[in-house]
Amino acid sequence: MNEYNGKKPVTIVTGCLGSGKTTIIQKILLNKGYTEDFAVIVNEFGQVGLDHHLIRRAEERTVLLNGGCICCNSREDLEEELKTLLYADESGKETFDRVIIETTGLADPAPILFTIMSNPLLQNRYVIDCVITTIDAKNGKIHLKNNPEIYKQLSVADKVIVTKVDIASETEISELVTSVKGINPVCEIIYSIDGNVDPNVVKLNKSSIGISSINVNDISNRNHYSNDIQSISFTFSKPLNWVAFGLWLSMLLHAEGESILRVKGLLDVGEEGPIVLNGVQHIIHPPQHLDSWPEGENVSHIIFILREINTDKLSDSLFAFQKFLDTELSFLEHLKI
């Protein structure tokens, strides 16, 4: 039994066309000092090939389930490839430790998450560990202006890799990072030249999973590329009732799931360590129970990244529900991007 409870971890790499996704994956695969064996699923090979023994190419085939919600598009192609890899691994023909999924530059990551987390077989054998989004330091501002899909890619990211920093000015990099943090205040920023990164970037850093380090003074609310994305965050001053909170969150996601791009929290439920809450739209990762609090964290926090939703309505609902949560709620910050 490993740190993923016997499941195969999945890392999703997304980002605009030309932002360096393939180059970064290639450099990771070529790193001889890394001990994990990777299986890689790509939507498009691009001009830079991936020299690896376990490559699967997934054509873009989706199946719309129960209406028009984009995150309920089941990736039938991805489901087939993940099952094929699983069977190969269990038979001993082609073993691997982790799956890396490279999306197309125009992809919404939500259907990938939905496919893995809604299929009983895949949910039992895989776990989504980390979502990485790449953004070009030189052309990132143009992408933010012209490519609306990048807002979704950035909002769901655990880590954002700023590429090509060697050909961008300090001002360009600083302004881009400010815009990225305005969209996703809880992401980890990593800088890369020529696709070089620590290969451990594919893993979520469990020791720095908290969100209390957000410095709202560093986040600009003057991003003129978008006017419909907001973030709102709260703190809880004492342990909360996890069952009651789950009920409130389920009702919220049922009513407004498409508008909630990301929810991330570190919640005190009266145990030795907190519960890590992580979700995209109405897709919630299985809550993770930590044995102890990460360094510098000792109070519950939760942040929502929203699009086209009334934040007052959300805030009023949570405050009205706090007596059932058996906790004391504090409004932390509201940022309109």
How would you describe this protein?
This protein has 337 residues and is α/β, with parallel strands linked by helices. It is 29% helix and 26% strand. The protein is built from 9 helices and 16 strands. The protein has helices spanning 21-30, 76-91, 110-118, 120-125, 140-146, 149-155, 170-183, 242-256, 311-325, and strands at residues 8-15, 38-42, 55-57, 62-64, 73-75, 98-102, 126-136, 159-163, 188-191, 229-236, 260-267, 275-280, 283-284, 288-289, 300-307, 329-336. The chain has a 7-stranded parallel β-sheet, sandwiched between helices. Strands 10, 11, 12, 13, 14, 15 and 16 form a 7-stranded antiparallel β-sheet that branches. It has a two-stranded antiparallel sheet with strand order 4-5. Strand 4 (62-64) and strand 5 form a beta hairpin. Helix 8 (242-256) runs antiparallel to helix 9 (311-325). The longest helix has 16 residues, at 76-91. The N and C termini lie far apart (43 Å). The relative contact order is 0.14.
Write the layout of secondary structure elements.
Blueprint: E1 8-15, H1 21-30, E2 38-42, E3 55-57, E4 62-64, E5 73-75, H2 76-91, E6 98-102, H3 110-118, H4 120-125, E7 126-136, H5 140-146, H6 149-155, E8 159-163, H7 170-183, E9 188-191, E10 229-236, H8 242-256, E11 260-267, E12 275-280, E13 283-284, E14 288-289, E15 300-307, H9 311-325, E16 329-336
Helix pairs in contact: 8-9
